[in-house]
Amino acid sequence: MELIYQIEKLQTRVLETLSEPAILLNDEGIVVSTNSAWEKEQPHKELLGGETNYKALFEQFPEILEKISGILSGKDIIFSTVFDNYETTYTLQVLPIKEQSRHIIGVLLLYKNNSTLAKREDIEFFQLIAEYSKDMIKVTDVAGNVEYASPSHEIFLGYIDESNIFEYTHPDDLKNLKSLYNELINNKKSCQIEFRKKNKYMEWVWVEAVCTPIQDKTGNVVNILIISRDISERKRMQFDLEFMAYHDHLTGLYNRRKMRMTMDECLSEGISSKNRFAVIIMDLDKFKSINDTYGHDVGDLVLKEFSRRLLDTKRKDDIVGRLSGDEFSVVMREISGITEVIQHLSVIKPLLNSPFIIPELNLEVMIRSSIGYSVFPEHADTVSGLFKIADNALYKEKKKRIKIAKTASSRIKKLSN
Questions:
Q1: Beta-bridge partner residues of 329
Q2: In angstroms, what CA-CA distances link 349 with 305, 313, 369?
Q3: Residue 321, SS3?
Q4: 35, 47, 196, 322: which could join 248 in a potential S-S bond, CB 3.0 to 4.6 Å?
Q5: Domains and CATH numbers, the chain
Q6: Pairing outcome for strands 327-335 and 363-365
Q7: Which residues pair with 68 in a beta bridge?
């Protein structure tokens, strides 16, 4: 009974307010109503009476059939396409009609002859669609000035009084949104975009928007129809997955995969623009003994502390990562040459190698790091070559440290004897 009531409500409140031809399908895809504008133009000659299924209307248009079928099977699809009945070209807009539970109870098909601009008397149509779809529906002019915003904006953003679509858009997304408007005006085809809007709590909310150009009788785009929804949760999951894919779980630094990607990018930039960059590799001396003496929990604290020091001592555009175990890497972008790398290392080495105090354990752990580096293009012109040279330099320094330590130990023994 509820379904019948809602369909009847749509027939009486919506269809006759529309100036363009419109069809209402029920949840089985059967045409249950048309409006007066339809009777005048009749875009489908196939609609002759009786129960007509949408498949008979669009048998020559498989893409439209597929999308309407998807809506009727429960998919939340809103789309706009060009429909040509061999006499007149229409812009066909297809929207799912839902009840409060978001269950799809029908489909509304709206035909815009020569893409005519929706008139003010169509506002009730927009309001009703917003009521059932819960998506945010907005109409702007070509400059982005808002002419209509559905009440659902207040549910998701906390306001509906935005005067311009660009007003509360994230600065980093403004360029893309403005470019999209230019594309809509020039190409006159629907586009999709993801961007951030500020809500009433001054937080950035991700929205996904389908933007459709609306043209006047001369073919000029005069309005943009925007149907958007909040995708913040989906974006959070996406960011979490990306973080897991490219970051080390213990330290939060970039992982080996991301560091390799960064080195590849630097190499491409270096080849094309002749910029120098350096690859630095370092590990912690006697880290195994720290784990064996104090346990892996302390070892993890040491790795985190060393990571923090690397971040604190890096230059603005440098990239820091953990390759594996106690092995770390830094990529120094756009350097002048080897001398700059040597000077930078001479400054950060004392900071990296200072004792690490753990007050809650009343413990002081000595941190020592061996470091090797290579510079593009002086040492190598491939990532693997740069990595190998830096790795070899690290182990040369480590052997040197061990030799010095053994010599010092031998002298101490002689003195004690």
A1: 281, 321
A2: 14, 9, 8
A3: strand
A4: 322
A5: 1-116 (3.30.450.20), 135-245 (3.30.450.20), 247-416 (3.30.70.270)
A6: unpaired
A7: none
> Which residues make Cβ contacts (< 8 Å) with residue 68, sequence separation at least 6?
25, 29, 54, 58, 94, 107
What pLDDT does 124 receive?
A: 53
Find out whether 88 and 114 touch, Cβ atoms under 8 Å.
yes
What is the spatial distance between Cα 6 and Cα 324, in angstroms, rounded to a whole number? 61
What pLDDT was estimated at residue 300? 94
Residues of the chain where predicted confidence (pLDDT) is lower than 70: 1-17, 46-50, 86, 99-102, 113-134, 402-417
Q: DSSP of 59-121, one letter per residue?
A: TT-HHHHHHHHHHHTT----EEEEEE-SS-EEEEEEEEEE-TT--EEEEEEEEEETTPPPPGG
Q: What is the pLDDT of residue 4?
A: 39
Dihedral over Cα of 269, 275, 276, 280: its sign = negative
The sign of the CA dihedral 63, 66, 72, 75 is negative
Q: What is the DSSP secondary structure assignment for residue 138, as one 8-state letter?
A: E
User: 0.85 cut: is pTM over it?
Assistant: no
pLDDT value of position 323? 95
Alpha helices, H only, 143-295: 152-156, 171-187, 232-246, 256-273, 287-294
Alpha-carbon torsion, ordered 258, 259, 261, 263, to 10 deg: 170
Q: Is 282 left (phi over 0), alpha (psi -120 to 50) or beta?
A: beta
Please give the single-letter amino acid code of residue 390. A
Structure tokens at 99: 């009840």
pLDDT (0 to 100) of residue 160:
80
Which of 9, 13, 5 minimizes the C-alpha distance to 125? Answer: 13
Q: What is the pLDDT of residue 407?
A: 60
Among 203, 72, 145, 50, smallest CA distance to 64 is for 72
